[in-house]
Model the fold of this input.
Amino acid sequence: QVQLVESGGGLVQPGGSLRLSCAASGSIFSINAMGWYRQAPGKQRELVAAISSGGSTNYAESVKGRFTISRNNAKNTVYLQMNSLKPEDTAVYYCNAYGSSWSLQDFDSWGQGTQVTVSS
Done:
């Protein structure tokens, strides 16, 4: 079992910044990739940013240049620095991680979600 715990969401004004964190714990042998997804009301969940174990990153076009994903492999933690936030960034943000457990079974785990609201 692998658990993901997110933190850092909240209410921020347009143009402001927030930093999300997600820590993975449990029977973790290795994590191949970690990422952030978001889901706004009435919309499908979408990829925001992802990062591989080697540090390669991938971003949604809508957040390029404003969001930065990073990870600390030693702490099994991924971060999302969000700058120049816009009202359309309002959503529940979910952390995802997939890899292998100590029993060499693959896992694909999700966090519980953290609300980000951008509003004046």
